[in-house]
Design a protein that fits this description.
It is built from 3 helices and 5 strands, in the order αβββαβαβ. It has 135 residues and is of the alpha/beta class. It is elongated, with a radius of gyration of 36 Å.
């Protein structure tokens, strides 16, 4: 069965697209989706046992280390010296989940910040964050 024009000129190509197979496929897909959609929302009813337990929120220890404009160190709002910093960082570095939040004044030398970071890294603290202000 040939489709085309009724004219005798057979050298011209057929320019019409046969839409029948496309419509057939789309209708089959529509029927498949209509049949399977209710099956996807079906859930198995299970009576679960009830139990209560305390929620364990293991928050990591957070240390706020501040270096003010004069170069003085503050550990959680308590002033301390360089020697005290080394011992406190060593104790804090024993816990693997310790976080160091470093807040440094923009007018201090970078050398002091770099020494503090190196001391924290040598103490075993790997989670270090820099606290800044939004512009």
């Amino acid at each position: 069965m040939a489709f085309g024009q009724f004219e005798q000129d057979r050298s011209a190509p057929m320019v019409e697209i046969n839409m029948t197979p496309l419509v057939d496929v789309m209708l089959v897909l529509l029927v498949v989706f209509i049949v399977t959609a209710p099956l996807l929302t079906h859930a198995v009813r299970v009576d679960l046992p009830q139990a209560s337990a305390a929620v364990q929120a293991d928050k990591p220890e957070q240390i706020r280390l501040v270096i003010d404009g004069a170069g003085k160190l503050w550990w959680n709002d308590v002033p301390l010296t360089d020697a005290q910093l080394a011992t406190r960082l060593a104790v804090a570095g024993a816990r693997p989940d310790t976080e160091l939040h470093l807040r440094a004044d923009k007018s201090i030398r970078y050398e002091l910040v770099a020494k503090t970071l190196a001391l924290a890294q040598q103490s075993g603290i790997s989670r270090i964050g820099f606290i800044t202000e939004q512009p």
